[in-house]
Amino acid sequence: MSEEYKIPDGISYTKDHEWAKRLPDGNVLIGVSDYAQKQLHEIVYVELPDLGKEVGQAASLGSVESVKAVSDVFAPVSGKVVEVNEALLDSPELINQDPYGKGWVARIRPSRLDADLKGLMDARAYRKHVAEQKH
Amino acid sequence: MLGLDPRRTHLYDYHKAHGKLVEFAGFEMPVWFEGVIPEHHAVRNGVGVFDVSHMGRTIVEGPDAERFMNHMITNDVSALDPMSALYTVMCNPRGGIVDDFITYRLSGDRFLVIFNASNREKDFNWFQGHVKGFKVKLRDISDEVAMISVQGPRSPETLQKLCTGVVTDFGRFRLTRTKLCGFDAMAARTGYTGEDGFELFILDCPLNEPEKALTVWDDLLGAGKGFGIRPCGLGARDSLRLEAGLSLYGNDIDDDINPIEAKLKWVVKLKKSSDFIGKAALLKVVEEGVKRGRVGIMMEDRGIPRHGYEIWDGDKKIGILTSGGYSPTLDVGIALGYVPPEYEELGTPVGVKIRERLAKGKVVKSHPFYDESKYGWKREKG
Q1: Cβ separation of B304 and A47 shorter than 8 Å?
Q2: Are A43 and A65 in contact (CB under 8 A)?
Q3: Tens digits of per-residue pLDDT, A100-135?
Q4: Does the beta carbon of A70 lie under 8 angstroms from any beta carbon of chain B?
Q5: B235, A44: Cβ pair inside 8 Å?
Q6: Which domains does chain B possess?
Q7: Interface confidence (ipTM) of the complex
Q8: Cβ neighbours of residue A21 under 8 Å, at least 6 residues apart?
Q9: Among residues 214-243 of chain B, which lie with CB inside 8 Å of chain A?
Q10: What residue ranges define each of the domains in chain A, with the CATH number in brackets?
């Protein structure tokens, strides 16, 4: 089942299908997983968080909407939103095309990263989580 | 559905192999094959095919068939020629809409009525409950006749390749008998997309022997290849009808909404010679005026309006959206909803509450939303 979905190693995942990647500068890049984008299918609108917004882990950061459904994007880690992917405003389909690359959603300056990471899954655990999802 | 297995149409095997299946009105149906957006564009710009066999097909026949139909519906079939169709609603005694549908007059004393999938049993029972005093017989032929819709500006050329006799020289809301892929069939120039198109009835095609329907489906996909044909799911069916401003029963109209509010007064013939169910209530509505009316709303701010979202004027809630979504043709969010009459004027600014935010929109022409010189069956042929 999970081989249908790209789940790269080296990044962390939430049970709600967001991913978080530590950057060399100490910030965390976040987005939604390949599984999430495939479930949503054709994404037509992304609501991005305001710059400077402080979020707690699992708080809503914004939303991703496909033709048929709306899905919240929850913050995988606590912190401050320092950059948002404005390319998604005109090209929301970037999430479908490249969920871990050009389809990133926001960059967060984490406030309690080590504690938050304990609540996330590694790729192996997330593959198992995805395989358990009902279709 | 009471734990029952979902129902399937004649084309289920194709859908299972090629489509993304969802349950709709108790049927297992494709919501898309490749995707809503490419399927939507195929129909607006070329041609697409839809399985519509989940809809109900009922024959009304007998010496009193015309009188019975006119008693049940708000429109008037008395001037309807054989092999012609009309769109109508039928109402309850309160004037609320029981269903909206197209009815085809097959001959002087025979009508074919196409019920919405979600209302198949309700409508048949509603008809059956009113036959007393009329010499009519009702027959549900849904499981003996398959129904496929081929829609889009290239649909006439596509269909013609598979038919004996000319099927493209008759107008909208007309019906003809034909041999389709060699099978007995009827082709009607009707649809639910705003485009030119045909609804095809494949006769003598029982649910448990679906080969004829599968053959027609495959042959249509072959015949339309040069026109970019796509099999289309319920997702594109919904986005296309929304752009065309066509009501969806259960969303935009229901038992508690009357056709005057729904801007369907044009199918309510209060002056026809016969009485009909709901007439007294509708006369009163017309006399007293409505408290709300259906409008189209186009978003000016970013965001996708959806069914159930609130419509606001400043800090006052004024109504609710009954349908909404992304318009692939216009690349903007569009919606249908109900507001008090003072907000119905085109251009009126309104807010739509999208999650926690109030997004700006305005009341626009919605039947259809698109420019009719560029899209839809009236478009200028180029």
Answers
A1: no
A2: yes
A3: 999 999 999 999 999 999 999 999 999 999 999 865
A4: yes
A5: no
A6: 12-55+143-242 (3.30.1360.120), 57-140 (3.30.70.1400), 250-364 (2.40.30.110)
A7: 0.87
A8: A10, A11, A12, A28, A29, A30, A100
A9: 235, 239
A10: 12-116 (2.40.50.100)
